[in-house]
Structure formats: C-alpha cells, structure tokens
Amino acid sequence: SPSETTESFLSKEIWLAPPQFYEVRRLANFASFSDLHKFCLGRALEGLERWLPIILLTADGMVHLLPGDELYLEDSDFLENLMSTEKKTEEIMKEGKQFHRIVIHNRHLYDIHVTVQSKHKHVYPKNSVVSKSHL
Question: Within a domain: residue 64?
C-alpha cells in the first residue's frame, strides 16, 4: 500500500527516487484499487502534461521544483543546468507561498509541498512533511 511503501522508505528498508516517492504519495489519495481505476478512466480524457523538474541546490540540501511552483522557471536552460542559492532550504521555504516541490533532506528523507491548484484533473500527492526528529 502507499502508506506501507512510504514507511518502508522512511525506515530505509527500500529506496525511492523522488519521482517514485511523489507517485506513491499520489496513490495515497485513493482508498482502493477500484477508486484509482475509476479516477483513471475519467482522467484519461483530459490529456497529458509533461513535467520536468528543475533542481535547486540550496546551502544545505536540494529542492526539485515542479510546474506551478513560484520558483519554477519555464526557461529550458534550467532543465539541463542546476539552479543554486546560498540560502538554506528552510529560508527558501519560509519565503514562498505557491509550492509544487520536493525538498530533499537526504537519501531517505523527502518532504512534498503542494499548494497550487491542479490542472486537467491531476491529483497531487498528499503533502508529506517529516518531523525534525527524522532529520
């Protein structure tokens, strides 16, 4: 289940790359496979969107920015090159309001922050923020 997979990831039994962690957290929105199937049938008519993350290196970590996030830049140069800042991740998070991002603290600790409205009936992952005790 999505909750078991998330727990296995946090307890370091398995490793998930950020995109897979994002998708597992999206699946947590559905109580059953039947609910997911119904959603997929209705969602298929909406079309597709291609998402490419932009990586922002901070003084103490990394943030994957996704379309809709206020720091996401449509400039294709940033899809191939990393953005960077001297600020710490916590500072970056305090400054913003419109989020669609994965904050990477370490190999087994990610936070997902989504405050933007979805387009095309997209279901965003449940926000996933771990406690400071995991840091």
Answer: yes
Other C-beta atoms lying within 10 Å of the C-beta of residue 68 = 19
Rounded to whole angstroms, the Cα distance separating 15 from 36 reads 24
The verdict on pTM exceeding 0.70 is yes
Would residue 131 count as lying in a domain?
Answer: no
**Which strand (E) or helix (H) includes residue 20?**
helix 18-27
Q: What is the pLDDT of residues 25-79, one digit of tens each?
A: 999 999 999 999 988 888 777 777 778 889 999 999 999 999 999 999 877 666 6
The answer to whether position 72 is within a domain reads: yes
Domain carrying residue 43: 2-114
